[in-house]
Design goal:
The N and C termini lie far apart (44 Å). It is built from 6 helices and 5 strands, in the order H-E-H-E-H-H-E-H-E-E-H. The protein has a single domain, classed as HUPs (Rossmann fold, 3-Layer(aba) Sandwich). Strands 3-2-1-4-5 form a 5-stranded parallel beta sheet, sandwiched between helices. The protein is an alpha/beta fold.
């Protein structure tokens, strides 16, 4: 599938999910801002994909990222972030959402596995009640978009 073809609306994702369920395939869901892609993102996305047959990725819109991360973010526009993520082998579909949380997507897709970083606790994962199970993926130490963006702003020595 062409990269851009993996960026789909929720309505198409729901149809895909129904087909996966009918075929006995396991659907996995994760989400995030993915503003500057780094090794920590790749690690968590590959781990998430290994937990099932198809990985749906919910991507925060630009307005959503601004509300969550502040006025200087996102660093990359949603279309660019979506294209980069869709190009990854681990990602099967990218769905952009404008809310602060992906609850609407999770509720509609009802994934078999909902994957978040281990910085979340099972009781605090949004949408947990609409998924088969929650899996927490260990974060790679020292890898975060916030720390990368901060380092980029510092003068080089």
């Amino acid at each position: 599938m062409r990269t851009a073809g993996k960026i789909i609306p929720l309505s198409k994702a729901v149809v895909l999910r129904a087909g996966l369920k009918k075929a006995g395939k396991k659907a996995v869901f994760t989400n995030g801002c993915f503003d500057l892609l780094h090794a920590g993102h790749i690690y968590s996305l590959e781990k998430a994909r290994s937990m099932g047959d198809f990985l749906f990725l919910g991507l925060n819109s630009d307005a959503s990222v601004r509300r969550l991360k502040g006025p200087s973010r996102p660093l990359n526009k949603v279309r660019d972030r979506a294209l980069v993520l869709a190009a990854l082998q681990a990602v099967d579909a990218v769905i952009v959402f404008g809310e602060d949380t992906p609850l609407k997507l999770i509720k509609a897709l009802r994934p078999d596995v909902l994957v978040k970083g281990a910085d979340y606790r099972n009781g605090t994962v949004v949408g947990a009640e609409f998924s088969g199970r929650v899996a927490l993926v260990q974060l790679l130490k020292g890898r975060s978009t916030t720390s990368l963006a901060s380092r980029l702003k510092q003068p080089r020595k």
